[in-house]
Amino acid sequence: MPLDKTGNYSSARFFKAVFCAVCSVLSAAAIYGCATVSPGSKPVCRISGVDYVSLVSVCAPAGVKTEYDAFSGKARLFNNKHEIVLRTGDDAMLYDGELRHLSRVLQVHRGSPVVASSCVEQLMLLFGPSGPAITEKKPVFHGIKKVVIDPGHGGYDPGAIGRNGLKEKTVTLDVAKRLTSILRGSGVDVVMTRSTDVFISLERRVEIANASGADLFISIHINASRQRSLNGFEVYYVSPQVNDYKRAREAAGEYSLRLPEEEEKDIPYEAKRILWDMFYSYSRAESSALAGHICDKIACEMKMKILGVKNARFHVLRGANMPAVLIEAGFVSNPSEEAQLRNSRYRQRLADCIARGLESYTAETMACLE
Predict the structure, then answer these.
(1) Fewer CB within 10 Å, N or C, the chain?
(2) Which pLDDT tens digit goes with each residue over 313-322?
(3) Which CATH number fits the domain that encloses residue 101?
(4) pTM above 0.90, yes or no
(5) CB 189 within 8 A of CB 181
(6) Domain of residue 210, CATH code
């Protein structure tokens, strides 16, 4: 949940884009995947009319490792790309940190975990073929040279705190660092408003962003609500109610248009004010577009509930002199999303999707300029 957020797109440029998992497949997932029942994986028991095979016997040939805790009844299935955690008798599982519902497919026979033989064939759909992980192509950020990443809260300000103790400030910093790594890996310069667990005021966050000369500002937060059932992902941009005339007047007297010095020195104050007024209108539209692209990627690749693109008067958004968005990456007050956000794989997927949303946005922007 935010106290405030920020963003920026290059003013220099301004001035001269099937939830395919069925419950039956999900349950199969609970068993650590194999494409077919391997030789020797014969049914070891029959429970309630269903044949079960040894979990280890179907996973090992597929290169899927298994760990089973008999005391807790918890099984962990993993390879170099995916991980499944489930428990005997449960109607849910974690697939790469994402909570999914399933039938009770994991059972125990004579102290060893067994899985329904009818599920084995679908398991590989979740784990994929064994072997070295496929290296994904690095995202390309067209026309973006510098981005400010703003991890919400920090220090003595923990932000929202989940029922099981997960703090917003911890999640936002981790996701921000992962996003920063992706951007820098593609040659984008990144400025973080904080890179450690320290408190940074909203005013200071805006100052850092505006002084950076960055093209975009991305503030990362985690939501919270008294209604624990609320969940989902949303992105904010600055509200149309924010007075652009006032912002433009202040910017004209304080900030550079980032034009060549010999050109800018001859521009009258009133002309600068008009240019900044025009830029803020442009910036709001670009912020809304960026927010939409990020939501689209999250919806497509993470299957999260999308609460949509919204506008607000958050301090970091209205203070930024560049396109800016504030991301609410789930509700720490929701038990399921708190569990997901605690998982490092899940946080990596969040960062990946945000980066892909940014890539999609810049590709569309570039296409419009051509």
Answers:
(1) C
(2) 787 887 888 8
(3) 3.30.457.10
(4) no
(5) no
(6) 3.40.630.40
Q: Which residues pair with 315 in a beta bridge?
A: none
Domain hosting residue 250, numbered range: 11-19+136-369
| Cα–Cα distance measured from residue 239 to residue 253, given in angstroms and rounded to the nearest whole number | 23
Q: Give CA 4 to chain center in angstroms.
A: 18
Residue type, 271: A
Identify the pLDDT of residue 30. Answer: 33
Q: In which residue are the tokens 């408190």 written?
A: 199
User: Can you tell me which residue has the tokens 């102290």?
Assistant: 111
Contact 105, 28 (CB under 8 A): yes
Which residue from 216, 227, 217 is spatially nearest to 316, judged by alpha carbons?
217
Sheet holding 233-238, edge to edge: 189-192, 146-151, 216-223, 324-331, 233-238, 306-312
Token pair, residue 298, equals 């999250």
pLDDT higher than 60, residue 199: yes
Quick check: is 2 in a domain?
A: no
Torsions phi, psi for 7 (to 5 deg): 180, 160
Whether residues 46 and 146 share a domain: the answer is no
E-state strands within 266-368: 306-312, 324-331
Cα–Cα dist 175/283, whole Å: 25
DSSP per-residue string spanning 124-156:
HHHH---SSPPPPPPP--TT--EEEEEE--BTT
User: For the CA atoms of the chain, what is the radius of gyration?
Assistant: 24
349 and 213 co-located in one domain? yes
Pair (15, 48) in one structural domain: no
Q: What mean pLDDT, rounded, does the chain reach?
A: 76
Please indicate, yes or no, whether residues 34 and 89 belong to a single structural domain of this protein: yes
- pLDDT digit string (tens) for 211-227? 998 999 999 999 999 99
